[in-house]
Amino acid sequence: MELNDNTNEFHEESNRGYDAGMANKTERLAENAPGRYYVDGSCIDCDLCRSTAPALFKRNDETGYSIVYRQPATPDETAQAEEALVGCPTECIGNDG
Q: What pTM does this model have?
């Protein structure tokens, strides 16, 4: 990742895509709503995504994992999903978009 010398912020391309350290597509939980955001099997049920984007993530009580139960429909919801993705301590939230 390349740092911007003027602002010490990551360039936009480093904040999108999440190739290394991103959720594993092959471990995508079947309970996720169809679409670009998903949670994989490395979820530790920490509640960060549910508190960051409660309209999009919920806990599956049967599995003990968080899931995406609704895909974002607005720019604000997309920003919340991205905030949850970036903040996830196990990097179990993926974005295929």
A: 0.77
